[in-house]
């Protein structure tokens, strides 16, 4: 039972911070953007990520069925970690920033609608 | 509960900590934590795989390629939908509502970008919308 709140806690604990950091790195880091440019890039990254995450939600369901739960969670967490660490490393390329943010968002969406809660539904 | 506590602690504790660390170490910490989480789940054996398949069925499934398994699942889904029309309606309804929610987020973010560009509001903290 602990895995459900723990998974979402872990997910949000690191990713919410990474999102805030990724906004700051655009204007204060080596990307060298003005606050207005940083806002535009950040919201465009969110928009692109959300669009790509739509089909990825369906892919996520397949991944849980095909690979198993632990392997899927581990793979998506690994992808999240790598994409977050890559954000300052790929600067000043804004295109690569978009890719990192999109990959990050795609990895989050299947984890937020995980199938763990199904274990607690009893079929009679 | 996990979402709320995670969000609050992330901004209150982790973001404050990473700000004091500098850019690259800060990103290393927030990204590296995901590897620690995998270790916690693995070490604690917290994720249990469901045993919905019989042994025979499981072995047969393991022999198939990834593409074969996907085809098999789609075929099973199609059969289930044919047997129970409510399931098909449910799948389409859930997909449509999910698409709708994401499209609202996308429209909102686009609007925020345009609004900010035109009026130079200087908003640096557009919320994280998943």
Unreliable spans of chain A are none
Number of helices of chain B: 5
Largest sheet of chain B: none
Q: Helical segment tally of chain A?
A: 4
Query: Which percent bin holds the helix content of chain A?
Result: over 70%
Strand content of chain B: under 5%
Strand content of chain A: under 5%
Number of strands of chain B: 0
Largest interface: A-B, 69 and 60 residues
Instruction: Decide which structural class fits the backbone of chain A.
Output: mainly alpha
Give the overall shape of chain A.
elongated
| Rg of chain B computed from alpha carbons, rounded to a whole number of angstroms | 22 Å
SS elements, strand count of chain A: 0
Would you write up a description of this structure?
The complex is a heterodimer of chains A (124) and B (130). By secondary structure, chain A is mainly α. Chain A has one domain (3-113). Chain A has helices at 3-28, 35-67, 69-89, 94-112. The radius of gyration of chain A is 16 Å and the shape is elongated. The model of chain A has no long low-confidence stretch (mean pLDDT 81). Chain B has a domain at 1-48. The longest helix of chain B is centred in the C-terminal third of the chain and has 35 residues, at 85-119. Chain B is mainly alpha-helical and 130 residues long. In chain B, helix 1 (2-21) packs across helix 2 (23-43) and helix 4 (66-83) packs across helix 5 (85-119). Chains A and B meet through helix 1, helix 2, helix 3 and helix 4 of A and helix 1, helix 2, helix 4 and helix 5 of B.
